[in-house]
Fold this sequence. Notes:
- By secondary structure, the chain is an alpha+beta fold.
- The chain has 18 helices and 23 strands.
- It starts with a helix and ends with a helix.
- Glycyl-adenosine-5'-phosphate binds at residues 217, 219, 249, 251, 260-261, 264, 266, 268, 331-334, 371, 373-375, 377-378.
Amino acid sequence: MANEDKFKKVISHAKEYGYIFASSEIYDGLSAVYDYAQNGVELKKNIREYWWRSMVYMHQNIVGLDSAILMHPKTWEASGHVDAFSDPLIDNKDSKKRYRADVLIEDYCEKINKKAQKEIDKAKKRFGESFNEEEFVTTNGRVIGYKNKQKEILERMAKSLDNEDLADVKALIEELGIADPDTGSKNWTDVRQFNLMFGTKLGASAESAMDLYLRPETAQGIFVNFSNVQKTGRMKIPFGIAQTGKAFRNEIVARQFIFRMREFEQMEMQFFVRPGEEMKWYEYWKETRLNWHKSLGLGEENYRFHDHEKLAHYANAATDIEFNFPFGFKELEGIHSRTDFDLKAHEEHSGKKLQFFDPELNKNYVPYVVETSIGLDRMFLAVFSNSLQEETLEDGSSRVVLKLPSILAPTKAAIFPLVKKDGLPDIAKKIIEDLKWDYNVIYDEKDAVGKRYRRQDANGTPFCITVDHQSKEDDTVTIRYRDTMTQERIAISEIGNKIKESISYQSWLG
Ligand code: GAP
């Protein structure tokens, strides 16, 4: 399936099966804002839980926090967001479409990268088993040429953005001949900076109202609570604070469904370390987070690191974990070594000390921070798009199946009576009564069983349990597995164990 078609199918499937709706749809929706429907809210909750457990329950030195969305406005002066949280935007004069100038250039570089990859793939085919990719990449003239060109462009862009030389960013776009991806027009405006924070007001009267911002990241709620948590939790360096919650950004370009939203949710963890030890922890968290992603079985080949050329104002090292979305490899998670920038800035702006007394070193210092930051909605899209598959079956028919990792599936099992009579619905309902305390399970008696199986395949339900006449005789049922479509007969008393085994956190995260 072509990537564009696949992405369209992802969006329509998400709506048809009650995962995601456009916000305020009856008023034609609100750009880049979405609502999570009956299945979506469960999947989202399960992803959040999977992250939370891996961070908070699996690490004795990481604790949770739920700070407010509204924060004192000085927070955003200290963090640098008032001055520097902007994207370089450019408009196309013919199409009137608005783009992020840096994204246009990065997409251009990705095309060069694809050309290099094509050369590598061709050579791989030619040389077969004896192919040494590392050697090829460092010796093949064409590949070296592509890589150098890409590096040169990205370095020039990073330098221009650092120096606020927006005229050079535009010059680069023109020199590379970058056209409007939708219309092909090269008639561009100048590049301008655009602050992404949403403003709002606190207070009733116009005179006394205080200007506030909706938080653009959850991280600052963690920084301003550093001392509170450290003291009340008697935390010792190194330790982390984890938080999930809404963030808001007035994104310039928000056209990729839930990939780039104006209201979204982040799952962030700030890990406080001794100054000078940050690179060790940066490497630790790179590996740990990649392993977390791999644990879900979405395919190891679908992840890659992308180290930043242009570092944010607070970072001394940064990388993205990119995922192979239906529209190509894009950022899924950021891992940043944020130095002591944030805590120091909050000390200066608040006049309060945000330090740690290290008994081993017998001194106070402002800790350094390594941050892991992932968008929950973006993770949802990664899981959902990767799981949606169309299969051709042995008999030539096809089925649409949502092969969600069972630990994340909204509904763990659907219970069917084979027919709506002969006491079978009562047995099915009794099974629901027993399971509902531990698992989200549903009852379905509508349509033929085959149709019900297909419905649950498309819904992502890992198990279907069918109660038939034999169940009345021997207290057994048929369990049918979503991914293999195989069936087996098990005792009713075994159903709970089957589900439990398949969604044990220990087997997924361990
Ligand atoms: N505290 C650091 C921080 O916010 P970021 O790279 O701007 O860093 C972190 O954002 C993650 O949040 C991204 O990797 C992405 O998954 C998610 N994210 C950022 N902007 C988003 C948006 N507009 N819509 C959905 N997710 C977004």
